[in-house]
Amino acid sequence: MGACGFDSRPRHSSLLLALAILAAIFWIPAPWNYVAVVVAALWEVAEVGLFVAYSKRRRATTGAEALPGATGVVVEACRPLGQIRLDGELWRAHCDEGADPGETVVVESLGPKLTLLVRRA
Q1: What b/e readout covers 47-64, taking b as 16+ CB neighbours within 10 angstroms?
Q2: N or C: which end of the chain has fewer CB within 10 A?
Q3: pTM confidence score
């Protein structure tokens, strides 16, 4: 490993790409070897462009923005305060309707003091 945890050695894919270009230049007959290299390069550029466009299609939802609409399971009876398990985490929850352990609840919003406001599903 190099500085900041990055590996400074060339990866196998880079080596394979270099070998494929050399093979195309030296083993494919004359005008077709250049055509093969250009087509492969255009294909790589298009593939990278598609990956970038795909990754930017929507923003990642994390934190408080991701909580509304999520479902959890009541661990400690919510009458009106209790605890729910949401994505493997225990959260303090407030349910006006009341919910018993094992019931499924839906998060409405994030209330004061990191208390989830929930309703029965």
Answers
A1: eeeeeeeeeeeeeeeeee
A2: N
A3: 0.54
